[in-house]
Design brief:
The structure holds two protein chains of two kinds.
Chain A (H helix, E strand, L loop, with lengths): L7 H9 L4 E5 L5 E2 L14 E5 L3 E8 L25 E6 L7 E6 L6 H7 L2 E10 L3 E7 L7
Chain B lengths: L9 E6 L17 H15 L9 E5 L3 H4 L7 H7 L7 E4 L5 H14 L5 E8 L3 E2 L10 E2 L28 H15 L3 H20 L10 H7 L5 H5 L22 E9 H7 L4 E10 L7 H14 L12 E4 L4 H10 L8 H6 L27 H14 L13 E8 L3 E8 L3
Parallel strand pairs in B: 2-3, 2-4, 9-10
Antiparallel strand pairs in B: 1-7, 1-8, 4-7, 5-6, 8-11, 10-11
Helix pairs in contact in B: 4-13, 5-11, 10-11
The chains are: A mainly beta, B alpha/beta.
């Protein structure tokens, strides 16, 4: 029987405690993040919570000039961020994850981006982003840059 | 001839051909979306030689009505009244900019199922203006004055579970096709820029020949006026600024008012109404989420596989024409190669050499595409399919492809979450 339970609330409550949760399929072992109650590979609803850890692997850095507004079709996604620190877009994966994701990445500048891109893939720490709707979202930050 | 993949074969017997419009145009003064809706529906019915009483069902696509049309949800009854269709069954499709294509497939399936014989598929959208709840529909205001603040059609496409783009800009979706191309086919960022700029010039060239397109001035002429001998140099200049890392202004969708309609019917009665019916061979659709990298590209792959697997031996190069959504430049190049209409890894050369123009070797979007013809959200698919029908009947006017268009591939995308492929054939 499908186990009806809060998924979104559990995930976002956990972020308030500094923990990033995903879900692991108990039938095929695949991990889905952000969490979903159905396995994206085998379709099972037999999934349990799993901690994703505090570090991910950044596979691609997609440096964008956040000052470029374009027309209204294109909007920067930091519209709801309480802090407007510069960041760039990245593609990464969790060490225990099953697929790549898009995420905001802090610590990349015009000056260091070429050097960082040359070192990819890179480890990055979770950087929780405060949104003005009263919740947190998961981004990442390159601190002491270390090639994986 | 290709084999129709429906339990009951379906034909297109009528289409509207309204020009793309803007309510900023003084010629539109006093009009509202309702008049244009009625115009499109009657035009398609006249073209199909049917009357409203002959229509068994309506499928209609619109997605911004809750914002732009007086805050109304699914104005199905009133829209039926305006076209003389009150009392008919009607289905409202809201699937972002894929809605028009999905509405078409729904109309086709309504006939293919045997439940209805003649179905009208129609779309309506007014992206850049709105009317307030307390005023009639002709009292239009620029969307920037929308009471609840500026709304972003890019942003509203993403749900608020996880896909609200917490940190990932809307730009990324369309950038990825460029990233993918550079990564896999080894061209430089500069070559990609020239490819996208050439594509914009090719599409504007097409639109300059199409009286139904919104934009007609060629970039080559604009370059001359600005003092440039080389149009590509103009396209690389501040006259055509980058709005993302790869996409320039000329490579971004052009929103405008659209109304369109198409009539489909059971193939066995099509000749009774039209001397040139177009057969609907097949369709395939996939939806996915934008949370995963390269989603746009993957949806093209998935639709191609689902569509082609039912037609053994089919190749993209079998098609005489491809019409494909081009919200931004990368989409046209990626889809044309994934579907095999252009050779993989070589498509950029076709754009650079102008071979995708309507009168060239491999025409793509002879009407001008979403970035020069225009784009009206949920109606876009209906208008794109209408342009395909006109091409196949040899009635597209100045932008008519100068060779028989017997097999046409129409590929549409909307919302970053839905991609559709439709095969049409002239079997007369």
């Amino acid at each position: 029987m499908y186990p009806l339970r809060p998924i979104l609330k559990t995930y976002y409550d956990s972020l308030e405690d500094g923990k990033v949760l995903g879900m692991k399929c108990q039938d095929c072992g695949k991990v889905v993040w952000p969490p979903l109650p159905t396995c994206q590979d085998c379709g099972s609803y037999n999934l349990d919570w799993i901690e994703m850890g505090d570090e991910a692997i950044i596979d691609e850095i997609r440096f964008e000039d956040s000052s470029v507004g374009g027309d209204y079709t294109f909007r920067k996604a930091d519209e709801f961020f309480t802090e407007k620190d510069p960041y760039c877009v990245s593609v990464g994966h969790w060490p225990n994850g099953s697929h790549q994701f898009h995420a905001a990445l802090y610590g990349v500048t015009e000056e260091n981006k070429d050097d960082l891109i040359a070192k990819l893939p890179l480890k990055a720490k979770v950087h929780l982003i405060q949104l003005n709707g009263g919740f947190k979202s998961v981004g990442f930050e390159l601190e002491d840059v270390e090639a994986k | 001839m290709m084999k129709q993949q429906f339990a009951r074969p379906v034909s297109v017997i009528g289409t509207s051909s309204l020009p793309q419009r803007s309510f900023d145009d003084p010629k539109m003064a006093g009009l509202s979306p309702y008049e244009l809706w009625a115009d499109a529906c009657h035009q398609a019915m006249d073209d199909a030689h049917v009357k409203p009483k002959d229509i068994d069902k309506v499928v209609y696509s619109q997605f911004a009505n809750f914002i732009t049309m007086g805050g109304v949800m699914a104005p199905v009854g009133s829209l039926e009244e305006w076209a003389g269709l009150a009392g008919k069954p009607i289905t409202h499709i809201e699937q972002a900019c894929a809605g028009g294509y999905i509405a078409f497939t729904e109309a086709v399936n309504s006939v293919a199922s045997g439940q209805y014989d003649i179905v009208l598929v129609a779309g309506l959208e007014n992206p850049k203006h709105f009317n307030s709840r307390n005023q009639p529909a002709y009292k239009l205001k620029p969307i920037k004055e929308y009471d609840n603040g500026w709304w972003s059609p890019g942003r509203v496409l993403f749900d608020t579970a996880y896909t609200r783009f917490d940190g990932v800009s809307d730009n990324l979706l369309t950038e990825e096709q460029g990233k993918h191309y550079i990564k896999h086919y080894g061209i430089t960022e500069g070559e990609l820029d020239d490819t996208y700029n050439s594509m914009a010039m090719n599409l504007r060239y097409n639109a300059s020949h199409n009286p139904r397109a919104l934009m007609h001035e060629r970039y080559e002429d604009m370059a001359k006026k600005a003092g440039y001998d080389d149009p590509l140099e103009y396209m690389r200049s501040e006259h055509n600024p980058k709005i993302t890392q790869y996409i320039r202004k000329s490579g971004s969708v052009l929103h405008n008012m659209e109304a369109g309609a198409i009539v489909v019917c059971s193939a066995d009665i099509a000749k009774k109404y039209s001397d040139h019916p177009i057969q609907v061979i097949d369709d395939a659709t996939v939806s996915n989420t934008t949370r995963y990298p390269f989603n746009f590209h993957q949806m093209n792959v998935d639709v191609r596989d689902n569509l082609y697997k039912k037609h053994p031996g089919i190749k993209g190069s079998d098609f005489d024409l491809m019409i494909t959504t081009v919200m931004t430049s990368g989409e046209q190049l990626d889809s044309a190669e994934v579907f095999g209409y252009l050779p993989e890894g070589e498509g950029y050369k076709y754009e650079l050499e102008g071979k995708t123009r309507f009168d060239a070797e491999k025409p793509i979007n002879p009407h001008g595409g979403d970035i020069s013809f225009g784009h009206g959200f949920g109606c876009a698919g209906v208008c794109m399919l209408g342009e395909a029908i006109l091409q196949m009947r040899g009635e597209a006017g100045g932008s008519q492809v100068p060779k028989p268009v017997n097999k046409c591939l129409v590929r549409g995308m909307g919302g970053g979450h839905t991609t559709v492929g439709i095969i049409l054939e002239d079997q007369n």
